[in-house]
Amino acid sequence: MDIDYSSESSSDGSGSSGSSYSEDMNVERDVNMIQPYAFEPVETDSSGDHEDSEEMASESSSSSDKTTRLQDTNWCLCTHCQIKDREEESICCHEIPACVSINQEAAQIEEIPVPECITDNPAFQYLCLNYWVLRVAWSDYRQH
Questions:
Q1: Is 5 among the domain residues?
Q2: Upper half-sphere CA count for residue 46 (Cβ side, 13 Å)
Q3: φ, ψ at 43 (rounded to 5°)
Q4: 130 belongs to a structural domain
Q5: Number of H helices, E strands in the chain
Q6: Which among 103, 128, 125 has a CA at the least distance from the CA of 114?
Q7: Is the whole-model pTM more than 0.85?
Q8: Which InterPro entries match (predicted)?
């Protein structure tokens, strides 16, 4: 009579159930730690048959536009942008609809001309540069 003991763990806790328990504990501990790149988009293969020459032409023009953004600030509409190291950072506040609408709202409420840049918005000083606001935001970020 043959008995298979491979699925049972040993009595000293060094069996498979003991190792999976310690792995589960590591996973639980890791969940509470900051996970870099956790929300980065995953690149997908875009070499499908549905692409036509117009899409490829627009992609090549946009990639060349991003390349020039790393070399100069001629693309900037607010005159406050600076040359950045990465393409993702090279964006003007006028290209972000939320920033444009906030500047328009500030102009209506404060009865001032529309700010040229989001950094000229009256709320920017209080919400983005104030030490105590930043400290509360950092504390909240650290807890989550």
A1: no
A2: 7
A3: -70, 135
A4: yes
A5: 5, 0
A6: 103
A7: no
A8: P2RX7_C
